[in-house]
Amino acid sequence: MTIVAHVDVLISGMGPTGATLAALLGQRGIKVAVFDRLPDLYPLPRAIGLDHEAMRIVQELGLADAMAPCLGAYMPSEYLGMDGQLIKRLDTQPEPHPLGWSPNYVFNQPAFERVIRARLSELDTVKFYTEADVLDSGQDEASAWLDVRLKGHPQPVRFTAQYVVACDGGASPIRKRLGIALEDLGFDEPWLVVDALVPDELLARLPQTQVQYCEAARPATFVVGSGGHRRWEIMLNPGDSVEAEFPDAELWPLLSRWVKPGEVKLMRRAAYRFHGLLAQAWRQGRTFLAGDAAHMTPPFMAQGMVQGLRDAHNLAWKLVRVINGESPGQLLDTYFEERCPHVRQTTRTALELGRVICERDPVKARERDTALRAAQGGEVKTVYRQNMIPGLSAGLIAKGTNAAGTIFPQPIIHADQYVGRLDDWVGSRCLVLIHGTLDDSLRARYQASAQRVGAKVVELTQRGKLEDHAPHAISETQSLLADWFAQHGASVAVVRPDHYVFGTAPSFVEGLALMKQWEQGVMH
To answer: What is the pTM of this model?
Structure first.
């Protein structure tokens, strides 16, 4: 086998997870080769929702402005019971948004992916190959490899690297080759998914929110996408077609309560099985699984694609440290330790919502309707979607400290010659944020500790007093950070490069011990 290139990381699959991981690594100087079997990106919508964590990753890639045309407001989700009555309601948390972005968006997935691929083309560190079939994979103690049939090459060629990441979908050949089994989380239902462009004159006739029709005879979901994009997800009954290209004769009767033939332009209609599946291992030696290769989540929380982006973000900063010799290889074990429980809990929450929708027994469905309204005191209360997303419960966090494993806020800050979002000023590194002002002696100790781990130490001070502490001081336009520190009884927060809180300390002196704990976690 001819070896054509040796890089730091090989990625099989250039969907949202693979492309995002390649970009995160590439812009930090890691050499990456990424392969996709298609000649171009998949042209039809699949995922339709993303959240503020995803947008924070987009921001890190420098793509927030370019992504804006792809996005739309995520409307409230109203669950309607057997008699059409409201039984449950989910919505987006109002401003101020704690992570600097609206907690939820609808989006155009092909346009989203196009923006990320454009970013890849700007990075000299990343080479991506389309019409590239990954035929085999392997590894030993020193390296990992992919054997690939490239367009225009008569024979397969071998690429080698320090690590391989399989982002090659739910049927992942690499996962199967490794012999990693999938755990079934207990959901396997057939659904029809239909995407259509609706002309402006018909939009007002359709629901203005996301609607979950919790009807025993035929559960269904209506989704308000961006622009004129609307989606229907309709549960299939025994005897319905399960062909991937769903037949017109069955399609239009199912859509008849909303639209008639010829009124909309169909973009896609396909029968799927909604699964809750979780790979039992996400790492074997130098090979990792990410995205759908590691887990599959039904769409009831619009978290499927976001789960993969979280994988990419979690894995990227750890690979960077290990490849650059800043951390031992054991740091990469925390990828599975952290992400697997998070995905499991998020998927289970999605499954619980799915079971609300999918009750097929009419008697039990009416009992559900009564019980849900009674549990809310007879009046449906709005639940914020993002409060349903867990934090990290294991891995590289300082357990026992307040807020450990939660996501750190991102306000608009004022710093020396800078006004803007916190992440853009900090960069892709660990942040040590001090609520208050350090004396010179403590500041020197913090800076010495931070230098050993590549962290940035910042002091949060009051507006108008930056000149006393610049360039290591910030203030905020609102009181997002000040309120956060007060809520958690903290004076110091150590925040990981992926914006999860490593831990907090109630005093400046105890903060030094927390920094030592972080240093030991990433360097030993």
So the answer is: 0.96
